[in-house]
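Appendix B, Record 12. Input sequence as logged:
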Amino acid sequence: MAEEPKSDRKLTDCPFYWFALLEQYIEKGDFERAADAQRNLQRFGIKVSYCHPTDAFGRREASHA
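Logged structural output:
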């Protein structure tokens, strides 16, 4: 069986990587790193806006620490 060709693409060149980090950092409350992930997504032409989650009535959900 022939071997699959290896990709020269780095993990950091994949938008999915930065989306995953963005979600993780937001969940942990690390907004400085979330902003870095957001800047990296912008390199791909992807603009992401995020804010505090709201409930069905438009109120911010309580933060659970």
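The chain is about 40% helix and 0% strand.
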